[in-house]
Amino acid sequence: MWSFFVKMLPAWWPYAAGAVLSALSLVATAHVVMRKRDVRAAIGWVGFIWLAPVFGAFLYAVFGLNRIQVRASALHVIRRRLPSATPAALSIARIGTASEVSADLVPLARLSEKLSGRPLLRGNRIAALQNGDEAYPAMLDAIAAARRTVALSSYIFAGDRAGRRFVDALAAAAARGVEVRVLVDGVGARYTWPPVHRELCRAGVRTELFLPRIREAGLAFFNLRNHRKVLTVDGRVAFTGGMNIQARNIHADNPPRRVRDLHFRVDGPLVGQLQEAFVEDWAFTTSEVLHGPGWFPSLSEVGSTTARVISDGPDGDIQVLRTVILGALSVARQSVRIVTPYFLPDSGLISALAVAALRGVRVDIVIPAQVNIPVAGWAATAQLWQVLLPGCHVHLSPTPFDHSKLMIVDREWTLFGSTNWDPRSLRLNFELDVESYCTETAEALDILVAETIARAREVTLAEVDGRTIPVRIRDGLARLCSPYL
To answer: How high is the pLDDT of residue 63?
Structure first.
C-alpha cells in the first residue's frame, strides 16, 4: 500500500521534501546560533537538528526555546515598579555601600546591587532554624498569628503529617478572614499523592501551581521550576531558605530517610523584598498583582544585619546568582565555606574556586556522603579532582542527607537560600537567596558549618584517583548528564 502511494507521487517530491526539511533545519539553526549563550549547548542543538531532521527541530522548539522570557516580558513593567511603589520600599533605609559594608566587600555589594536591582537594607534580624523541628513550629505560629495576609511559596509541599499541619493552619487563617495565597511548583506538588494543592483548594485556600506540567505549560516548561521557598505573614515576618514542607525534616518523629536542612526567620525591612519576590511570582502565575498595606506595611529597623534579596531565574534574572558567587570568590581573602547538597559547578565556577585556593584562601566544600539522587553523587565525584588538585578541601557529611545551602566568605558575608551548586539550579530554576553583610550572622553560621565538618570525612585526591576503572566510567557517564540533574 505504501509503495503504491509513493508511485503516485510526482517525481520531484523528494526534492521538495528535502528543500522543506533543509529550510526547517536552517531556521532552527539560525535561532540557535543567535539565541544560545552556551557554545556547547549551541553546538549540541545544531548537531541534533541536522542529524535528526524534523525531530531535532521539534525537540528544540519544545525544550530549547526560553518561553519564560517571552511570558515574563509582559510582567517586567509591573516588576520594576513594585520596589518604588510600595510603602515598604518607601519606608526602608537604603544604605550606601561604602558606609556600612567592609571595604573589602564594597565591590561585591555594588555587583549584587547592579545584578539584583534591589538596594542593600540595614536594620534586619535573621535567625537560623535547624530542621523542621525548629522551623515548622515557628512558621505555624506565625500563620496562626496572621491578621491580614499570608503568602507561601514552596517547591515541595507534601501531603504528609507535616504538610497537613500547614494545610490546617492556612485553612484556619483563611476562615478567619486572612487573605491567603499559596504557590506550589507544578512538578514539586506531585512528589506526594494525592497532591496537597487539591486539599488546600477544598479547604478554601487560594492555591495555584507554578507552570503545571500538563495544563497550559506542557512539556515546554517541564525543566523550568520554581525552587523558591518563601513565607510572609502580614508583610512583617518572613521565612526563607532551602527547606521544603515535608515530614522528613522533623527529626523528632524519626521518619525514614531523614533530611537535615536550614531555614531562616527574617524580621525588618528585608521582609519587604521577600514579599516583592513572592508578588512577582504570583503575578507571573496568575496576573493578579497583590498590593496595599496588608501585603506591604511600613517596616522599621529591628536588628543590626545588613542584607539584600537576590532573585535568579531563566527570565530577566538569568545567571544572576552564579555571577554573585563568582564575585564573592573573587573578593575572598581568608576563607570560603560552601555547604550544598549537589555539587556540580560548571567550568567557570571550578576555575574561580581553584584560583581562590591557589592564592591562599582556605576553601572548604561540604557535600553529603550519600546523595538522595545517586547519579548526582556519581557526577559530583567525577569532578572533585578539579577542585582537590588546586588545594580545595572537600568534606563528606554523614547521614542523614544534608539539604542545607550556605556560602560564607571571610566570616563576614553569607549567602543562603534555595540555590544548589548545579546547572539546573543556576540556569533553569527560579531561585531566591539572601546575602548578608553581617559578621555576627556569618560567625554563627560558620560555627554550624564547623560542627558539620567535625563530623564529616575529608576526601583526598589520592582517594578520588584510586577509584576502580568501572567506577570511574560510571561516574564519568553520570557527569555527562550533569546539565540535566
So the answer is: 64
